[in-house]
Structures are given as structure tokens and as C-alpha cells.
């Protein structure tokens, strides 16, 4: 018996077979995104005092319940005293988990009762969005990033991932677009809220004036957006 026969060192082919095992890979793709969410809560539990942990956990849980979104959860967390970078990281990781789950398990997730209905709703939103915005198919990557970035009703990591699938983008590109849109959106709301809070501490009147200006601009943009969509529908035969 040769020395080679006596060694138990696994060969590269065995490792490749293990990685290529569809049952193993499928299980990892299903479990990993779901495990990321409780991992975020566990990390918050370790780094935050218990009362602070309960408050931020409530905010994070509310993020999954419409109509709450980045535009409400992040500023509220900053006002309550949480660091802008912490709430940015938490919300971004939640979006990462949701996007990974959708792009890796889309067909399987459609068969899960509650999640399947959410994905079907996202497919309806995505189809309506692409029909009202035909330019999106020409600039699919940029359009998907903007779709996730802007806090309009129906946007976000889940529906953004679904929209990416409808546009025919590969999984890596969909995930990348969702991550870019989510991170930039989180940073804008977190840093903006932090700066506005600092301004309020120094000059409350100025801060209130800036906030009112922002609200008026957002309302005007939403009204203009809806009017634009209404005109597009009226032109459709």
C-alpha cells in the first residue's frame, strides 16, 4: 500500500462535488438570508442597553409593516438618539436579507402562502411600473436603483428584486442594484436627519423651516408624479 493510498486528504474533486450539490446549495440559499435577520437582532441585543434594544427592535419590526419605510423609521430612530450609522447599517442589512431571499428563492417563495402573495403583489407593482415608465427597460440598471432609492409606495428591496426579475436582469445585477439603491437611500435619510437635528439644537426656527420646505417639496413631487401617471393612462388607448 502506497503512502498516497493511506492519506485521507480530500481531493479537489470532492470539494467541487460538495459545492455543486444542488440540495446543499439550495438549503444554504434558503436559510442564509433568513438567518441574517435574527443575527441583526442578536447583534443589537449585544451592543445596546436592554431598553434601547426594545425600542430599536420595535422600529426595525415596524419597517416590515407598510406603510412604514426608510422615510419614517430612520428619522425617528435618529431623533430617539440612535447613531445615524447604526440605523443605516441595520436597515441596509435587512434589505440585503430580503433581496437575497427573493433573488435566490423566487420560484420557491411563490409557493409559500404569505410570502407568495407578497411577491405576487410585487409582480403587479413591477408590471404597472414598467408599463407607466417605458424608459425603464432601456435603462434597467439605473431605473432599478432609482426604484429602490425613492421611498414611493410599493418600492423597496423586495419589490425592487421582483422588478429586476421582470426586467430580465441576472441575479447578481438585481442584488447589486438593490444594495446600491438601499444604501444610498438609507444614508440620505440618516445623514439628513442627523444634520437637521443638529440644526434644530442650534436654531429650532431654521430647522422647522427646512423641514417644512422638504415636506412641501416631497408633496409637490408626489402630486406631480401622480398627475404624470394619470396623463399617461389617459393617452393609453
UniProtKB/TrEMBL annotation:
The keyword Transmembrane applies. The chain crosses the membrane at residues 30-47, 53-69, 81-104, 173-193, 205-225. The keyword Transcription does not apply. Keywords: Membrane, Transmembrane, Transmembrane helix. This is Small multi-drug export protein. It comes from Methanoculleus formosensis.
